């Protein structure tokens, strides 16, 4: 009889456990993960919907007679398309892509489309990876995506170098969606490591926008390349597991994150989108929370629509506030400083969490540590490696900025850095 009386209690515990799992996996709101992040501005987020349309145009067979154009068209000039590669031309080594010389926005763009559900070669690229299989610049990257990135870079580096030299004031921008987002992220990292192959381009002229990217880099690389890589995520969220942060082989979304939030819990429909941004360390969308909108949130069409709505709302807010042009320029300069400070804070946070190879650098966009022989994709030339003396000097500078020595001779954090 006592055993039978205990059965209802066990059933209740089981039901509560199932309810908790359902809440975490299906009903958990994405906004919680980025609620403490700062709000993005129109100036920094403006390229996103424009580049989404450029990625969408890669799907077209003939850009002069488009079949799938979004409302308002792609906003591109077919005469400015330099090359447009198909599956036949890539041989299945990468998804189709396009190089576009955008004179209106002063940039050279390499745009790559996302996963084709009907192409086995795309699955082969995506599934070509094992945990900890490939090392790059002191961290780990997705093996199949790195192969695709190297293939595209090697195939187009001469053309890109010519375009960079002919247009010395233009940015070099890489953009992609889903599988293509992972590829362009690694192309960007590979290009930064091999800038000599692109002529005289500086690191600050290279940038990447990865739309709904595949997890492709380890946490230390995700933070260290946040000055050149921007990941855009619509609504999807994550559940934090501390043990995954301790595994240096785990792969994450790369770079600075832009989180578009446009739904609320227990509310029907989409709301005016809010874009939050940060260089997070603890929460980088490690797990996708299941929902009825998970698939649509990942598509490039919805990313383009919601990002354009977000930009329009930002511009409307600026118009209502009647911000003068001089103040806009000052805001851009202030934004650059804030991004730099946030980036350095993320590196310090990674060090505090004992993330392997999470090096700190006092200057935004330069990094101190590359160990000889550990990078499968970095340049083999001596010029690409910092000398041991410079590494030591930067490490000493890092120690002096963060620590003091107390009366007992022990190192303690400075009060200004805590």
What does this structure look like?
- This protein is of the alpha/beta class and 418 residues long.
- Helices cover 41% and strands 16% of the residues.
- The protein contains 13 helices and 15 strands.
- The protein has helices at residues 2-27, 42-45, 47-57, 87-90, 120-127, 143-166, 179-193, 219-224, 242-245, 294-298, 300-321, 325-352, 388-402; strands at residues 38-39, 81-85, 97-102, 107-112, 134-136, 139-141, 171-177, 206-211, 217-218, 229-234, 251-252, 256-261, 274-278, 403-405, 411-413.
- The strands form 4 sheets. A 9-stranded mixed beta sheet has the order 1-13-12-10-8-7-4-3-2, with helices on both faces. A two-stranded antiparallel sheet has the order 5-6. A two-stranded antiparallel ribbon has the order 9-11.
- It is globular and about 70 Å long.
- One of its GO terms (biological process) is lipid catabolic process.
- One of its GO terms (molecular function) is hydrolase activity.
């Amino acid at each position: 009889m006592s055993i039978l009386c205990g059965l209802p209690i066990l059933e209740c515990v089981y039901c509560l456990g199932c309810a908790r799992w359902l809440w975490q996996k299906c009903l958990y709101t994405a906004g919680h993960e980025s609620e403490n992040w700062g709000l993005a501005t129109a100036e920094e987020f403006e390229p996103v919907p424009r580049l989404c349309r450029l990625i969408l145009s890669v799907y077209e067979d003939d850009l002069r007679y488009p079949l799938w154009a979004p409302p308002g068209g792609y906003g591109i000039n077919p005469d400015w398309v330099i090359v447009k590669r198909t599956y036949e031309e890539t041989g299945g080594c990468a998804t189709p892509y396009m190089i576009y010389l955008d004179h209106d926005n002063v940039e050279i763009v390499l745009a790559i489309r996302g996963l084709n559900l009907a192409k086995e070669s795309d699955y082969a690229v995506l599934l070509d990876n094992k945990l900890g299989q490939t090392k790059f610049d002191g961290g780990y990257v997705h093996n199949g995506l790195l192969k695709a990135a190297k293939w595209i870079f090697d195939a187009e580096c001469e053309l890109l170098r010519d375009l960079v030299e002919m247009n010395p004031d233009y940015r070099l921008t890489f953009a992609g969606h889903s599988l293509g987002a992972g590829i362009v992220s690694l192309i960007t990292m590979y290009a930064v490591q091999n800038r000599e192959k692109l002529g005289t381009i500086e690191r600050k002229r290279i940038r990447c926008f990865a739309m709904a990217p595949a997890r492709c880099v380890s946490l230390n690389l995700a933070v260290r390349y946040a000055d050149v890589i921007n990941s855009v995520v619509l609504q999807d969220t994550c559940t934090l597991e501390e043990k995954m942060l301790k595994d240096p082989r785990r792969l994450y979304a790369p770079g600075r994150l832009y989180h578009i939030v446009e739904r609320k819990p227990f509310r029907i429909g989409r709301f005016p989108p809010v874009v939050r941004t940060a260089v997070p360390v603890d929460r980088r969308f490690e797990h996708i929370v299941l929902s009825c909108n998970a698939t649509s949130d990942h598509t490039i069409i919805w990313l383009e629509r919601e990002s354009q709505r977000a930009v329009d709302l930002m511009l409307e807010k600026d118009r209502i506030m009647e911000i003068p042009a001089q103040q806009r320029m000052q805001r851009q300069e202030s934004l650059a400083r804030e991004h730099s400070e946030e980036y350095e804070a993320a590196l310090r946070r990674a060090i505090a969490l004992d993330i392997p190879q999470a090096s700190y650098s006092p200057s935004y966009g330069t990094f101190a540590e590359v160990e000889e022989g550990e990078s499968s994709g970095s340049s083999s030339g001596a010029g690409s490696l910092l000398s041991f003396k410079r590494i030591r000097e930067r490490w000493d500078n890092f120690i002096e900025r963060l620590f003091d020595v107390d009366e007992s001779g022990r190192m303690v954090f400075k009060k200004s850095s805590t």
